[in-house]
Amino acid sequence: MNFNGKVILITGGSRGIGNSIAKEFVKLGGTVIINYRHNDAAAKQTLKDIEDLGGYAVSIKGDVSSYSFTKSMINDILNKFGKIDVLINNAGISKIGLFIDMHEGDFDSIIGTNLKGVFNTCHSVAKHMIDRRQGSIINISSIWGEVGASCEVLYSASKGGINSFTKALGKELAPSGIRVNAVQPGIINTEMNKWLTKEEKEELEGEIPMMRFGEGEDIAKLTTFLASEDSKYITSQIITVDGGYIKDKN
Ligand code: NAD
Predict the structure, then answer these.
(1) Is residue 58 part of a domain?
(2) Which CATH number do you get for residue 186?
(3) Atom in ligand 1 nearest the alpha carbon of residue 42
(4) Where are the transmembrane segments (predicted)?
(5) What is the CA radius of gyration of the chain?
(6) Counting Cβ atoms within 10 Å, is residue 203 exposed (0-12), middle (13-18) or buried (19+)?
(7) Would 102 be classed as within a structural domain?
(8) Which of 69, 138, 190 to mutate to test the pocket of ligand 1 (most atoms within 8 A of CB)?
């Protein structure tokens, strides 16, 4: 696989899975743009990681749940780099808690970031990719979007929405030469799971056939494959990377 000369936009690229995906593309020669919401220090660290790998990246701060921000971010990238070959929709948030304790604002922020954010970027990028009759879009979903998680109802709904969105958009854009797929991670070692106690972590690991959480790199390897020519006949797919975890959870 080779991404020399390719421009890759990764939302939520400042840390966690997004950081791993950014590094993997850079190792394969790609030029990476990372978007992030708040954490300037994390974004700087990702840029440094990329520099250390001998690569080139820029960061753009802003909220993907805003249509106007997303549109102007994509226009700026197109003006500066001339194209976007690969879009990775990775930005995401979660909130754990009983459904009855959730507020309307939680619905707006979780669905707004996780699902509307994917609509926002795709809506601006698709027109450009259709004009070029090429491009690859990869959405980072979650196993909970397929099987649902107790105490993560809104998060599960947002990821289930991403899965259907991916299947439908992949069909619609296939005749224009654009592929759309989703990666559905299980439990990955990132800040998102830092709230688990040692005991809770061990209990969860015991339920995973591979007996460990995944690493960002596990997601990044599949993401680069799905963005590459090696997967040129794969579209509209939701692919699980979870160490065997949800096989019997449906
Ligand atoms: P993380 O919290 O470490 O990183 C999230 C990233 O998203 C950060 O860069 C943050 O700046 C960005 N972000 C959040 N809201 C944003 C917004 N409104 N606009 C722009 N950027 C925003 O999380 P992670 O674990 O690396 O998760 C990355 C993706 O993978 C998410 O979509 C998440 O739902 C998904 N996922 C994670 C796991 C897991 O176990 N960690 C499992 C399944 C799916």
Answers:
(1) yes
(2) 3.40.50.720
(3) 9
(4) none
(5) 17
(6) exposed
(7) yes
(8) 190
| Nearest-angstrom CA–CA distance, 70 and 199 | 40
204 backbone φψ class: left, alpha, beta (φ>0; ψ -120 to 50) = alpha
Pocket around ligand 1: residues whose beta carbon is below 6 Å from it? 11-12, 14-18, 35-39, 63-65, 90-93, 113, 140, 142, 185, 187-188, 190-193
For the record, the structure tokens of 161 come out as 């929405």
Point out the ligand 1 atom lying closest to the alpha carbon of residue 141: 44
